[in-house]
Structure formats: structure tokens, C-alpha cells
Design goal:
Radius of gyration: 19 Å
CATH architecture of the largest domain: Orthogonal Bundle
Order of helices and strands: HHHHHHHHHH
CATH superfamily of the largest domain: RNA polymerase sigma factor, region 2, helix turn helix motif
Strand content: under 5%
Shape: elongated
Number of strands: 0
């Protein structure tokens, strides 16, 4: 009977939402942060790799985000979205990291964009997909950091515009406009690179 207690706790935390878990962390139940780490470390790390272009920096920043979640848990609000709060902390931690190291984030590695490719097509299709991803990488790398960030949040992390607005500290309308402009800029840059490749 005693041995089943940890499993009961695990299944209880599995059924809690991210928001409920963070409220528990805020109220002093620090073990709940472990479940949030399990759920969100991968997506946060992926976002930071694409944002910074540096795997080691992304891992360091992700660790810092979870440390700050613990340190600043009292700032988490009842009406807030956990995901938006986490990515907001991620942006701040990334900015702090690069300010401290006096370095700018690099463009993303094309192999990281490959994670979104389907591995089932024929070899020719896979080669074309790799070429497309390499062009997409180059186009993404040419965007300024703010445009790259809003695209990563909306297209790769699939956050709502309400969440993106909270992260970027702007209105929902402004977040939509920024995402639309960034997507148009990415598309134009992508097609320009594609044209250059064919000539």
C-alpha cells in the first residue's frame, strides 16, 4: 500500500493543468515544477534553439527559465496563461544571456528545421524537402530577431495570438500585425532565395 503512494501522486499531477500545477508551485508545492519541466522542457528548448541558433546556449537558457519560475513563482497570476508566462520568461532569459555574453543570436541550423519534415516520402522528395528547409533556414536567418521570434511563437510553438500578445507585451491586434508582416517578409525572402538558386 505504501509503495503505491508515489504512483497516486504522479497520476494526480498528470491530470492537473499547467495552470493548476503552477498555482501549486506558487503556493509552495515545489515538486509540481518537476511535472511542468517534463511537459515543457522540450518545446521550450526547441523554441530557444531556433531563436538563438545555439544548442548549448538554448539548454543554458532553458535551465535558467525553470530556475526563474521557481524564484519568481509568486509573480504568477491566477488569470495568466502558463505557456505565455513561460515563453515571456524565455525571451527575457535569452535577452539576458546575450547581453551578458555580449553576443547576438545566430540563425537556426537547417537540421533543426528538419524536425518538422515527414520522413516517409521517397528519396527525391526528401532531397527536395531538405532543399526547401535549407532555403527556409536561410530566409529565417535573414529576418531580424523580433520577426523571427513572432514567427517561432505563432508557427512553430503554435501559441494563440492572445498568448503571443502577453509574451510580447502588446495588444492582440499588434501581435497579429507583427506575425503577418514577419510571415510576408519570410515568404518574400524565401522566394528571392529560391530565384537566386535557380539562376
Amino acid at each position: 500500500m505504501v509503495n503505491s503512494a508515489p504512483d497516486a501522486v504522479d497520476s494526480a499531477t498528470d491530470t492537473l493543468s499547467d495552470h493548476e500545477l503552477m498555482l501549486a508551485v506558487r503556493d509552495g508545492e515545489l515538486d509540481a515544477l518537476g511535472e511542468l519541466f517534463e511537459r515543457h522542457h522540450g518545446p521550450l528548448y526547441g523554441f530557444l534553439v531556433k531563436l538563438t541558433g545555439q544548442r548549448t546556449a538554448a539548454e543554458d537558457i532553458a535551465q535558467t527559465v525553470f530556475q526563474r519560475m521557481l524564484k519568481y513563482r509568486h509573480t504568477y497570476r491566477d488569470d495568466g496563461s502558463f505557456t505565455a508566462w513561460m515563453y515571456h520568461l524565455g525571451r527575457r532569459c535569452a535577452a539576458d544571456h546575450f547581453r551578458k555574453n555580449n553576443a547576438a543570436p545566430a540563425a537556426t541550423d537547417p537540421s533543426q528545421l528538419q524536425d518538422h519534415a515527414d520522413d516517409t516520402p521517397h528519396a527525391g522528395d526528401r532531397a527536395a524537402t531538405r532543399d526547401d528547409h535549407a532555403l527556409l533556414h536561410s530566409a529565417l536567418g535573414r529576418l531580424d530577431r523580433d520577426d523571427r521570434e513572432v514567427l517561432l511563437l505563432s508557427r512553430f510553438q503554435e501559441l494563440s495570438f492572445a498568448e503571443i500578445a502577453a509574451i510580447l507585451e502588446c495588444s492582440v491586434g499588434a501581435a497579429k500585425v507583427r506575425a503577418h508582416r514577419a510571415l510576408r517578409e519570410l515568404r518574400d525572402t524565401y522566394f528571392q532565395l529560391q530565384k537566386e538558386k535557380l539562376t
